[in-house]
UniProtKB/TrEMBL annotation:
Gene3D superfamilies, per database record: ACP-like
UniProt-listed InterPro entries: ACP-like_sf
Organism lineage string: Bacteria, Bacillati, Actinomycetota, Actinomycetes, Kitasatosporales
Name of the protein described by the UniProt record: Carrier domain-containing protein
Highest taxon above the source species: Bacteria
SUPFAM superfamilies xref list: ACP-like
Length: 82
């Protein structure tokens, strides 16, 4: 994992923690399934992706992303920045 990826993971974990505002005791990490655990709804995931695009300076390709197995920070970063 590159330093840039590690920093993106840290920033996105912090974003999720702010979003849920202490409403969950679940530990949040880069591999946490954000959708299947109910931590984030679809609108929150779009917000997280928008934040990822800002931080990474790139665009997320929604047309090629398949969230059926769940959405994790690590998966979003891998899809967005490779």
């Amino acid at each position: 994992m590159s330093a840039d990826t590690a920093e993106l993971e840290k920033l996105l974990v912090e974003w999720v923690e702010r979003w849920i505002e202490g409403e969950s005791d679940m530990a949040i990490g880069a591999r946490t399934n954000l959708s299947h655990t109910g931590l984030l709804d679809s609108m929150a995931i779009v917000g997280l992706i928008s934040y990822l695009e800002e931080q990474a300076g790139t665009e997320f390709d929604f047309a090629t992303y398949d969230p059926m197995k769940g959405v994790s920070i690590q998966g979003l970063i891998k899809h967005c920045v490779g």
